[in-house]
Write a structure and sequence with these properties.
273 residues, single chain, mainly alpha
Length: 273
């Protein structure tokens, strides 16, 4: 019992607190850059840049001291991954932090952030094929392989439904302001709370819509047995410009993703860790 208590205290140590907050900063940087890249696409052709994580990594790499920034980004994301791992192992703050579902979700987030951290660090270390690859090509390749498996269309369709459902859940939670229970709202001034709600609701809703749209494309790929119907982040964002609203809908989505980046920075400051 004492050993478990010590492990729990270690999981909530100052170092892990710093790592988690650094991870939120890193996530904010990526979403802000993806939003900016999507804005470029909305107003022009984007200069051949991808509006996804790979495009954001490539954008950072082109800047002075870009490689140093990528190392910092990758390490910060590793801090986020370790924090999520501690939540999976010991639960997180809050009255329902020990729920099995909460811990399972934390485990899934650990895997995701560990992968993103690894891809960014690998790119910074010289593996230029890691991290900056086109999300659209990767999605096409994975979907094509999955469709060839026995029951492949069902697998792809279910995966698409899960992603679409997760997107709708993300949007609902943002609209319902469920994030309030995770933030130190009492420490914010009224003006700051209003600003956090603007970026939290707008950014979270748009992020959910993007996920739901990508899931819908995966379902279409499964139904029509066409891998090309599935879309990565870049093609999903570009699809908004093909609606009757034209590029202005993509501009709205781009602003929403940038807002979510700002909301991530608010989490870095006021998140209960």
């Amino acid at each position: 019992m004492n050993a478990r208590g010590q492990a729990r205290r270690a999981a909530r140590s100052r170092a892990l607190d710093v790592g988690a907050r650094a991870g939120f900063v890193a996530r904010g940087v990526i979403y802000l850059l993806v939003g900016i890249l999507a804005l470029r696409i909305g107003f022009s052709d984007g200069g051949g840049k991808q509006a996804d994580r790979g495009g954001a990594i490539a954008e950072i790499a082109e800047k002075p001291f870009g490689n140093v920034l990528l190392w910092a980004l990758g390490i910060a994301l590793a801090g986020m991954a370790l924090w999520r791992l501690s939540e999976a192992a010991f639960g997180h703050s809050g009255p329902d932090g020990d729920k099995a579902t909460k811990r399972a979700m934390a485990a899934g987030r650990f895997v995701f952030y560990a992968f993103v951290s690894y891809s960014v660090i690998s790119y910074a270390a010289g593996d230029k094929g890691s991290g900056s690859g086109s999300s659209d090509k990767q999605t096409d390749d994975v979907t094509a392989r999955a469709l060839e498996w026995p029951g492949g269309p069902w697998i792809v369709g279910i995966a698409g439904a899960v992603v679409a459902g997760a997107g709708l859940w993300i949007a609902f939670r943002a609209l319902a302001r469920k994030y309030h229970k995770h933030l130190k709202m009492a420490e914010m001034s009224k003006r700051v709370r209003q600003a956090v709600d603007v970026v939290g609701v707008f950014g979270g809703t748009v992020r959910g819509v993007v996920f739901a749209t990508a899931g819908g494309f995966a379902i279409a790929a499964a139904v029509q047995h066409e891998p090309g119907r599935a879309k990565g982040m870049d093609d999903t964002l570009r699809s908004f410009a093909e609606t009757p609203a034209g590029p202005w809908l993509l501009v709205l989505v781009a602003l929403g993703l940038a807002a979510f980046g700002l909301f991530s920075w608010a989490n870095a400051r006021w998140r209960k860790v």
